[in-house]
Specification:
2 copies of one chain form a homodimer.
Chain A (H helix, E strand, L loop, with lengths): L22 H15 L11 H8 L3 H13 L3 E4 L3 E4 L2 H16 L2 H24 L2 H20 L2 H18 L3 H22 L8 H17 L3 H40 L6
Antiparallel strand pairs in A: 1-2
Chain A binds a DNA duplex (30 and 30 nucleotides) through helix 3.
DNA sequence: GAGACATATTGGTTTGACCAATTTACCATT
DNA sequence: AATGGTAAATTGGTCAAACCAATATGTCTC
């Protein structure tokens, strides 16, 4: 087991009095950093307390004090016998208000896609510039999982693997905001799509195209070509945007047709 | 010794999952109540941990977890060997998780500035492309207000005018996400700066430079030069970033100097 | 009375143990 | 083969006792 000592020296203890740094603060801060950096994502379960205390080189009570601190800030959540899980307060604090607005104002979706085009482009560019070996490994893995899910045609796994892949890119960009925001936005959109369009099966051959775009992003980052990575990410979003618009149009057509049928034959059936 | 058992039944554990009440939560909330009721006034010292744990009928580790929770909320403050004291300021808790993250992890500030550089650059570019006449009018007005506030040297008005100006740019970009995010991030940073650096008066001639940068952004948008607008916005953020870093360095220098003075002449004067 | 030193107090940390809830694996029943 | 239940392993929750280090307090000396 690798033992990585906690930094205890000049932790920013904002108290005015002269304070000896508490080890629980150091631990809490270390865990916070892992969450910020993305190595601990919302929904993840942290290692068991005994294990984690070994890994961090502190005793279990100290680790527990740190966890309690994070729990009181709402960043983690523990269940006896179950484990301790990372919550998504960071992301939700930015996007709780947006959740319901998306449904009410469809043109927000267009704004969102435009925003994501910028965000994911930048994320890919930075990732190509800055990714460490560990980042690349994680990216490979996420890509492999994504390919599997696509091959298996498992919508649920595909969706979560998609999020994981984009999250890995965001993580490799080494900017906490980019990582959390892109993940949050993607999740938001997927929920919204699932809500408004059923399973989006209306797109027949999109699968292989999407997979090719993901591969292009992955390759450009691996080969450390920032501009190519940005271009690939933007192409990807452009494709999603176009496909989505098309799918919406056809859905609207179907709906009007259905409505016409309704009004013609059974006007009382409101649905 | 009076033993008053802690109520453990239906403590308001806001977690969504089915949760067994933790004893440390019960203790924390019991202490909180004492503080709110006034039996523990700000400045008071709580009983020693060993004593208090007896009194409450819980073990010392559990009591400590509770105290750590309160400490992370800023309600109490402990000094090794000294004791645990009730803090005098109760209403200091900022509930935005990003806010205290910024304080605890300084590199997050850098991420934030990097992100803002992208965001505000894009906002300015889009604003230059898309602003309607109404947008431009609003922008003119925001700029005028900002100039006034700068001239009057009113920090409070200046800060809110600053936010309003960037918000106007965001609105003119005609992307709801850009507008809200850039405003939210600016507000977040301003709060953080005010918190960590006092009033940031340490920057002497920055005022006119900042004003010039705002003018450049304004002009480029008005003349509908997207690239120039983006460049101006990026220059603005670069300047803020550099100035902030410099100011932080000098603050650190001042602090070390003060510490040296302390250790030289009056080592007993802690605060 | 002022300063220095010894002692007691008090929070900080660790070790080790046991309990209780949950999860997991396995097995028998249908 | 699917289902249901039970036992074992896992994991957070709690406690006890001990030692360390910083602080506070009392005492002693000059």
């Amino acid at each position: 087991m690798l033992v990585l000592p906690i930094e205890r020296f000049i932790l920013p203890t904002p108290q005015t009095k002269l304070q000896v740094p508490r080890i629980s603060d150091a631990v809490a801060s270390a865990l916070e950093r892992r969450i910020l950096e993305g190595s601990l994502k919302p929904g993840d379960r942290l290692p068991p307390e005994r294990e984690l205390s070994l890994e961090l080189g502190v005793s279990r009570p100290s680790l527990r004090e740190a966890i309690q601190k994070l729990a009181s800030k709402g960043m983690v959540q523990s269940r006896q016998g179950g484990g301790t899980y990372v919550t998504d307060r960071l992301e939700s604090s930015f996007f709780d208000p947006w959740q319901d607005m998306m449904g009410a104002h469809p043109n927000l979706r267009e704004d969102m896609l435009e925003f994501r085009r910028m965000l994911e482009g930048q994320a890919a560019e930075w990732a190509a510039e800055r990714a460490t070996e560990a980042d690349l490994t994680r990216l490979d893995q996420a890509f492999a999982t994504l390919a599997e899910a696509f091959a298996a045609d498992d919508l649920e796994r595909r969706s979560s693997a998609d999020i994981a892949f984009h999250q890995a890119v965001g993580e490799a960009s080494h900017n906490a905001l980019v990582g959390h925001l892109s993940a949050a936005l993607l999740r938001l959109m997927q929920d919204n799509i699932r809500l408004n369009l059923g399973e989006l099966k209306s797109i027949p051959a999109a699968g292989s195209l999407l997979m090719g775009q993901h591969a292009a992003i992955h390759a450009a980052i691996r080969e450390r070509k920032p501009q190519a990575a940005r271009a690939a990410a933007e192409t990807h979003i452009d494709f999603v945007r176009e496909t989505l618009a098309q799918s919406l149009r056809s859905a609207a057509r179907r709906e009007t047709a259905a409505r016409r049928l309704n009004t013609d034959f059974s006007p009382s059936t409101i649905s």
